[in-house]
Task: structure prediction
Amino acid sequence: MGNTIDRILNPRRLAVIGASNDPLKRGYRAIKTLLADRYRGEILPINPRAPEILGLRSYSTIEAAPGEIDLAIVCTPAAAAPEVIEGCGRKGVLGALLLAGGFSEASEAGRVLEERTLEVARRYGVRLIGPNTNGLFSARLDCNAIAWFDIPRGPLALLANSANVILSIVVEAQHHGYFGLSTILSVGNQTDIQFHEYLDAFAADPGTGVVVCYVEGFKNAPAFLAAARRITPEKPIVMFLSGRSAEGKRAARSHSGSLAGDYAVGSGTLVQAGVTLVTEAQQLFPVAEALSLFPPMRGKRVAVLSEGGGVITIAAEALAARGMELATLDSRTQARIHAIVPAASAISNPVDAGGGTDPRATYYGSISRAILEDPNIDALLLVGFFGGYGRRYGDEEAAVEKQVAVELGELMRAHGKPVMVQSHYADYRTEALDILRKGGVPFQRHIEIAVHCLAAAAQYHASRRRIVASCATHPAALPAVREIVARARAAGRSALLETEARATLVAAGVPMPANLLLRSPEDAARAAQLFGGQPIALKVVSKDVLHKSEAGAVRLGVRGETAIADGVRAIHDSVLAHVPGALIEGVLATPMAPRGVELIVGVTRDPQFGPVVMFGLGGIFVEAIRDVVFRSVPIALEDAHEMVGGIAFKALLDGVRALPAVDRDAIALLLVKVSALAAAHPEIAEIDLNPVIAHAGGYTVADARAILAAQ
Result:
């Protein structure tokens, strides 16, 4: 399949169905750009009335054209699509690119037309790009069938739900001048070929080094995640995922017929698969360029070098905001810098080489060498004047600056550490900056973009290491859990009772506190004997009561036989008042958990991404706070640790208001075990452990729910 997609994207012979001599028609413009870019394959215009189009012999039908055809570019109206694809099928065409709109993205009638077209294509084995796409560009054979001119060539493959986003990046590449494209494709409605199949083709393409995606929705998100996990250890995928807001989701639903999934789920699972996510469209091109140039970044420790304090402050704050570290330079490195610039106002990191003296370009070379040789540093960020010393201080400094630009590229390669330059003079494209970029060092005008490139590199290479080392496996089903689920289904229940949910967790290896099911107030004596004088929690066990607190079905801090009996009676009375006729199995008694941080651990089934495990701050305000992260099931221990450190309020886990730091290792292991339970038992659709009380001694699962999948 990969070879078929590759031949479709890089056709040796292509037909243009609906070719035209009218300059206003797409069938004219497609051929015009192919000829203008000196396409190195053969073009076969298809037009029943014109014997020649743009100097090329035309054929009345696709079947009349000679030889094998890899790709048909279909420029006819949507209504003709089934008939056109029928002809392609009889001819044995490998793939067809459908330019027209008016399919499922437009109306119900369009959806039916799209399904008819797909049925014909599958009958003959014709693979479809689109419909509702704007064309294809592939640099390997100079196949420009996208009707845009002057597309720069390079290692960037571009996939998007939006032709407008593609155009924005193409224009940026044209202005940039150093970093071009290997493939451009607006995927359209993805009625047949989908995102993940293109990824697999790019993985094998020697001309592609990095993939950029703008995504509004997936038709097969699990397949995309699997493809990304295969590809990202070798080639970065940089993505802008829409749908971060309610407004974004609504816009995405109305565009290209796509479905926008929950952003928290999508972002978590994509990062798990090694995808580098950006939150602003303007970051796509710079991050892709940086990842294509940088050597692997070993950690998050960045040194900042400049000749002025203001930009140093901005850079330090931008690095901190993105989770990067300003590590202190080794004392020997500081001594070397002091010898180079005795009057420097700061040498520990950041390095201000301009304080107390006139800035000089030569400082950048010798100080950069000292910094990159420091084992405490993973990357170097230059901010300020560099690239503009010649314009600012004359020819002598210009000559020195150009030599330093050469040295920076050599240093980056020699030490295997990224070097990023932010220059106030970036828009002037000075000779020094030209030398710098041709030597493999990227530069940016704005500090925030430069910092984001470094942060993305740190995240990407950490993901590569995690994916390579990951040992997540698909666990085997547990007989005890199967029996519990079978009994629940036999009883006609769609959810497990809490006693059953706890039993499934125990079977999965999750330590659970002692518990006792009290059938009546008379069982209070047994509870008092089991738990002694320690305070206990009482809560109803009933298939009719899913949210216990709202029904007054919980009592906390209960001590002694009399209080336990009174609590059982009160719970029975409250439940029946809120849910008349409720079937009460009993009241569960468990010890009160120690003080700690309330967390939530759960599993749910996302419509796009499938089963995912969730972690975050829990308790009664979990829906309001929404400080949660997600990963696809199953997860490895490395994923679990990343989740624990990935919530916004992770500082709460380190101990606040006299609470000790929680045992992060124990929480991570809990996530792995819950994930394994969900992976082994798809018959359990949802798991909800809320709250899980995390404390210095580990954790206590205070409440457990499980919902069964529909049969």
